[in-house]
Design brief:
By secondary structure, the chain is an alpha/beta fold. The protein has 8 helices and 7 strands; from the N terminus they run E-H-E-H-E-H-E-H-E-H-E-H-H-H-E. It has a single domain, classed as NAD(P)-binding Rossmann-like Domain (Rossmann fold), CATH 3.40.50.720.
């Protein structure tokens, strides 16, 4: 990392992969603002992040609040160097029972909010001809997964947006990449897989490394993409999945 302290925003940074990314940043002297809806969760996360960690409460599904959020952050903390679009929601439901409202709700949070916050951050990045955006994709965009039609559509859109943003913004010094996590360990994923032995067997059989990843693996990937070590990397969707996306 360069000597200048950078400023990052991590949406959905109060827990899970977002918190792991925020930890990787704060531990490497990046001032990091986590954004989420649940203030208690954000306060707990901030305590883990230490002196480089801060938070802002915002429901990103309320698109009208996003411009003010970014204006507030830049006014208080200065120019934003890194944006990680991690916040997202999912729904497990058979295809024919998904309503229009449910489908749209997931697209609003997972796609439209990503577009909106990126647009607002980019306006400032363009002034400096510098910046890094990291989107969080999914294995659901790499191959077909049942019962998550809206989520799959949203993450496939993220991959397309990543490439389109990279082509348009990279000439102006703004790099845009995505990370596609595989099956990453958490108490929730462990419980879900243990309650579904067939799904668990499928996951591990097609993961060449034979085990789930750790949240820290995603944090390390984000840190790399945000760093000067990746200064010639843009438009990439990086699977961090133990080989799952290419497993037989």
């Amino acid at each position: 990392m360069s000597n200048k302290q950078k400023l990052a925003i991590v949406t959905g940074g109060g827990s899970g992969l977002g918190l792991a990314i925020a930890k990787a940043f704060t531990e490497n002297n990046i001032k990091t603002i986590i954004v989420g809806r649940d203030e208690e969760k954000l306060k707990t996360a901030k305590a883990e992040l230490g002196e480089n960690g801060f938070y802002k409460v915002c429901d990103l599904s309320d698109l009208s609040t996003i411009p003010a959020l970014i204006e507030n952050i830049t006014t208080e903390s200065g120019p934003i160097d890194i944006l990680v679009n991690n916040a997202g929601i999912n729904q497990k439901k058979v295809f024919e029972e998904v309503t229009d409202e449910e489908f749209q709700r997931i697209l609003t949070t997972n796609v439209t909010a990503v577009f909106s916050i990126s647009r607002e951050v980019v306006k400032d990045m363009l002034k400096r001809k510098s910046g890094c955006i990291i989107n969080i994709s999914s294995m659901a965009a790499q191959y077909g997964l049942p019962k998550v039609i809206a989520y799959s559509a949203s993450k496939t859109a993220i991959d397309g947006m990543t490439r389109a943003m990279a082509v348009e913004l990279s000439p102006n010094g703004i790099r845009v990449n995505a990370i596609a996590p595989g099956f990453i360990y958490s108490a929730m994923t462990e419980k879900a897989l243990n309650s579904d032995p067939e799904r668990k067997a499928k996951v591990f059989n097609r993961t060449p490394m034979g085990h789930m990843g750790q949240p820290e693996d995603i944090g390390a990937a984000a840190l790399y993409l945000a760093s000067d070590a990746a200064k010639y990397v843009t438009g990439v969707v990086l699977p961090v999945d133990g080989g799952n996306s290419i497993g037989f």
